[in-house]
Structure formats: structure tokens, C-alpha cells
Amino acid sequence: MTQEYMLAFDVGGTTIKYALITPELEFKESGHVPTEKNKDNKILKTLLAISQEFQAKYSLKAIGVSTAGIVATDGSIRYAGPTIPNYQGTPIKEKLAQTTNLPVFVVNDVDAALLGEALNGAAKNATNAYCVALGTGIGGAFLNNGQLFAGAHGTGNSIGYTLFDPCTQTNFEQRASTLSLEHELSPLEISVKDAFSEAKAGQEPYVSKLNAWALEVAKGLSNILLLFDPEVLIIGGAVCQQGEFLLQLLNNQLADLLPPNLCQTKIKTAILADKAQLYGAIYPFSK
């Protein structure tokens, strides 16, 4: 019997990653190509070309695409920010399905990261899980009884825009993203990674800086825990590489923000790194 593979893509602002994934969730082939700022519909053309190339060599079961932007129910790009020009309206699912005659799943990249962790990572076997991606901004994704929750208009979990403070005119992501932490550390001429190293050694002012940032993150997490009560809350983004030290910072702050012994959610850091979105893209076809 011929083995059927799944082809996964992860479309970002600068790079399109791809991987051929086995039914056992192992990577057989992988690579990446530049988006070239989506000049002349470069992204869609690349997805189609790579899909046809792999279809000619392997028996494909399905294609999954994780992508930046808001994905419409028909698998097109409903909204895309300025990081990917001329991307909005791109009919990814329609064109891939027409060209390959295969089932196609298109999903937002934060949703895909959560699905990947649920499939083969930190949220494996959880039916209710929330993911908070800390990066340039802050994104959210909610897996509820095995199904993604996106809201009535597809804009649910836009947690980066919550917690607006009229005094500072800032929202959650403007105070708690890793980009905001970078800005806070810039006068000290130190990277986020190195600041964590100094804080682990008990060095000031890095301990105080990271505690202040962790408090801002925890304010958003506390609302998620109280509103959604997931089995597990996953912290994603490059900062998740700080592992147990990051979790300790957040849990220390959450202890002062939440009613004692009320929330039972387990908070974890993501473990799949840059493979999470690729796994998440093929989530519906891996069962």
C-alpha cells in the first residue's frame, strides 16, 4: 500500500516554510523560500508550484497552510497587515484545491501554533487549550472541545488589543509584547535573551525589569484563565525558550492577580518551536 503524506506550509512575512509530513508525524522533507514581499503574487505561485512538485513525487493525502493574517471561512485571506503586501483576498484554498484536487486546510498562524502543540506538543491530548503568542504583538488562539473558536466574525481572541489604558493610551500588546520589553531594555543596551540570563543570576535592574514586564503579561493571562478556564495555557513565541524561569515569573505575578485556589489551568511553554505551525496546518488530516 502506497503511503500517503501530508504537505504543510507556514507563510510568514519574509519566508514560506514547507514540510512533507508522514502519517506518524515525522518530517520527511522540508525547506523554505523567500516571499519576496509577495511581488506578483509570489506567495500563491510558490504554494502552487511546490504542491505540484511534491504531488508529482509522492502520494499526497492533503495540504495544510498556516499563514499570517485573518483567514476567511472559504480559506482566503480576509485581512493582512502591511508586512505582506497585496495578500488580502488571496484565494489560497480555492486555488490549491483546484490545482491539486486535494483537501486543503488554511488557518491563521497563531491558531496553527496551538493546533500543532495540541497535535504533537505541550497541549497533546488536551481538548481545551489556549495559546498566547508573545512577539512583536500578542496573538491568542482557543481550542474548545477540539474545535478552534474564532468568534462570530472571525476576530475572536484578538487579545493584543484588550486592556486599553486611557492614561497611557496603550493596550495589552503595547505593554506586554516582547517588542515592548525590547524597548524597555534598549537604554541598557542588552537583548531580551541576555536580560533573562542576568535576571537568572539575580542581577539588577534586570530582575525588576522582567518582573514589571511579567506583571503586564500576567494581567492579560489572568483574564484568559478566568474567562475560558482551559485545561492548559501555552505560552508561545521566542521568549518561551526561557522555559521554567519564564513560567516562574508569570506564576509569581498571577498569584497576586487571581483568587486563591480558583484557577486550575496548567501553564506551559510551547515545545515545538518553528515546527508548531507546520504541524498545526495538517491538524484536521492527522486523525
TrEMBL record:
UniProt GO molecular function: kinase activity
Keyword Kinase: yes
UniProt-listed Pfam families: ROK (PF00480)
UniProt keyword terms in alphabetical order: Kinase, Transferase
InterPro entries: ATPase_NBD (IPR043129), ROK (IPR000600)
Family statement: Belongs to the ROK (NagC/XylR) family.
Protein's name in the database: Sugar kinase and transcription regulator
Origin species: Ligilactobacillus apodemi DSM 16634 = JCM 16172
Organism placement in taxonomy: Bacteria, Bacillati, Bacillota, Bacilli, Lactobacillales
